[in-house]
Amino acid sequence: MSLVAVGTVAFDVIETPYDSAQDVLGGSATYAALTARLLSRQVGLIAVVGHDFPDDYVRLFERKGVDLAGLKIDPARLTFAWGGRYGEDPNQRTTLFTDLNVLTTFNPVVPPAFRESRIVLLGNLDPYVQLRVLDQMAHPEFTVCDTMNYWIANTPALLNDVLQRIDCLVINDEEARQLSGCQNLADAAEVIKSRGPRILVIKKGEHGAILFDETQVFLLPAFLTASVQDPTGAGDAFLGGFCGQLARESAITAGALRRAMLYGTVMASFAVERLGPDGVVHLSLDAVVQRMRAFKRAVAWPDLC
Amino acid sequence: MSLVAVGTVAFDVIETPYDSAQDVLGGSATYAALTARLLSRQVGLIAVVGHDFPDDYVRLFERKGVDLAGLKIDPARLTFAWGGRYGEDPNQRTTLFTDLNVLTTFNPVVPPAFRESRIVLLGNLDPYVQLRVLDQMAHPEFTVCDTMNYWIANTPALLNDVLQRIDCLVINDEEARQLSGCQNLADAAEVIKSRGPRILVIKKGEHGAILFDETQVFLLPAFLTASVQDPTGAGDAFLGGFCGQLARESAITAGALRRAMLYGTVMASFAVERLGPDGVVHLSLDAVVQRMRAFKRAVAWPDLC
Fold first, then answer.
1. Pairwise CA distance, residues B277 & B82, whole Å
2. What Cα–Cα distance (Å) separates residue A258 from each residue in A152, A173, A241, A284?
């Protein structure tokens, strides 16, 4: 296995000013796995769903080449469900509900075939689950973790354990400020890196992302898309593109990390263009490559006189 | 004359969480001229001040090579004064006061030596004054204009006349949304360009800037600075760097516009690092060139496998 992804698989309810969707496939592991599989030869999913999880969704993952040996179906509980509503400004999100259901008792088991994976993607969920997955991995080459404000505020000790065991943290600007207590992102990066991860990526949504590696900073704008339908899963799609690219690199160099930033950004740009997971479900590697070319033209530096 | 800049020259009162300053030199023309003069061989200033404007400030401009033949001193009135307070988040600004004083009766006169200028920089002030300056120019090669929410809301007809007579509008994202009625910036750019300017630059503060030229988009992040002391004048410094670079280009090509974006961004990064105008007053071309190198390293694309 080249890449193992743990995270949530959910039923999402999404309301935007233009459209809405009920019980569509969602969750951090869903968006991450469905983007990573476009780049990484093998993607193994570790997640839990309930007895109500439809076969159609199982087959969707399988058809896309995602290995479900690590998907647990809990016969006693319902699938995790989340609902969100976006305003005219897609950065304004209201959470309508969060029904944890199967997540309350999730104790992940990493299948033997997954344990030798080079890249470990810890999608946003309880840091306890992230730690349990790390415990079962043999000797991953590179470990990448996402988290969110809820875990920063409510499980700081567990999250601290995670930080000390990962290579790279990928969070958004608001979370970086909350986690570090610093307003300035350069200061925030110093504080966060001193707590564990050698590498930090700060996502800024429509404003791009910043990579802090061991010695340098890489500033990358977001791809400008004319159609932002639904920001749900954009950060997870970024993570999937980022880790998927790392999985096809022969070594995790400074150049590899910058390339991973490009693929994360392009995957996120597709995720927001359609409602729910459609932007990543129906995505082809050809479309990714074409957008990468357009992206390169849009950020190309002129010659300096 | 290669570049003529019209705008405000002000006394600023600035309060930040860390520091404060009384009656420092400020205004859109001040920041624009003091950055443009680092790049453009000749910079002519068109502005008005009151009888209270100190000789020291006049000499400062002259020492920096800014031609003051277009600076009117109104013996009957006080200099324009503005006060602002910033929160911990430097994007949160409260205007403490705005005393228009000399601006209420300003009718600009462009000195004969300025009329043949190649580049015209219309800094943020009353669009009536911007139009009066345009009326007096012989045949500028490229005209660049800034404005703000106040003029968009209160003088739409005058601003519309300006839009039809300029080559390039430089505004921030909030203003672009207000002016166009579009939330999405790609949509906003289409609407704004349909109203006149061939070229549009949307500034996004710490998140960078976007250039929409006649056929392409150029996405540029901001330079990441560890020290943001005072955002006052950052947008004007961007405009000064942008126009200053255009003034030293032999023709206004797509490459020239992208280079202008780089210099605008670097100038703005210096403006925010010190309180009031100090970041641009004490700036040298050497420092600009060095930062441009660091900026280039920080945005350099990796090879794509």
1. 14
2. 27, 19, 12, 22
Please give the average per-residue pLDDT across B240-263, as a whole number: 98
Helix, strand, or coil here: A294?
A: helix
CA A280 to chain centre: 12
Model's pTM, two decimal places? Answer: 0.96
Q: Residue A90 has which token pair? A: 């897609």
Q: What is the ipTM of this complex?
A: 0.94
Cα distances from B166 to residues A51, A172, B122, B262, in angstroms, run: 64, 38, 9, 21
Are B301 and A258 in contact (CB < 8 Å)?
yes
Is residue A69 within 8 A of residue A111, CB to CB? The reply is yes
CB contact (8 A) between residue A184 and residue B226: yes
Inter-chain contact A219–B218, Cβ cutoff 8 Å? no
Q: Is B278 exposed, middle or buried (0-12, 13-18, 19+ CB in 10 A)?
A: middle
Q: Which domains does chain B have, with CATH numbers?
A: 3-298 (3.40.1190.20)
% of chain A surpassing 90 pLDDT: 96
Min Cα–Cα distance to chain A from B3, Å:
19
Those residues with Cβ within 8 angstroms of residue B90's Cβ, 6 or more apart along the chain or in another chain: A183, B16, B206, B228, B230, B231, B272
Q: Would strands B209-212 and B217-220 be described as parallel, antiparallel, or unpaired?
A: antiparallel
Backbone dihedral angles phi then psi of residue B290, each to the nearest 5 degrees? -65, -45
Q: Give the gyration radius of chain B's Cα atoms.
A: 18
pLDDT tens for residues A196-254? 999 999 999 999 999 999 999 999 999 999 889 999 999 999 999 999 999 999 999 99
Dist CA A293 CA B3 (whole Å): 36
**Nearest chain A CA: its distance from B288 CA (Å):** 13
Give the span between the Cα atoms of B293 and A304, in whole angstroms: 10
Query: How far away is chain B from the Cα of A201, in angstroms, using its nearest Cα?
Result: 14
Would you call A33 helix, strand, or coil by DSSP?
Answer: helix
Q: B176-230: per-residue pLDDT in tens?
A: 999 999 999 999 999 999 999 999 999 999 999 999 999 999 999 999 998 899 9
Q: Please, which residues 88-127 of chain B have a Cβ atom closer than 8 Å to chain A?
A: 88-90
Counting every residue written for chain B, the total comes to 305
Q: What is the pLDDT of residues B23-56, one digit of tens each?
A: 999 999 999 999 999 999 899 999 999 999 999 9
CB contacts, 8 Å: A187 with chain B: 226
- Alpha-carbon dihedral B94, B99, B104, B110, rounded to 10 degrees: -80
Structure tokens at B299: 């945005």
User: Which residues partner with B12 through β-bridges?
Assistant: B24, B82
- What CA–CA distance (Å, rounded) separates B191 from B175? 13
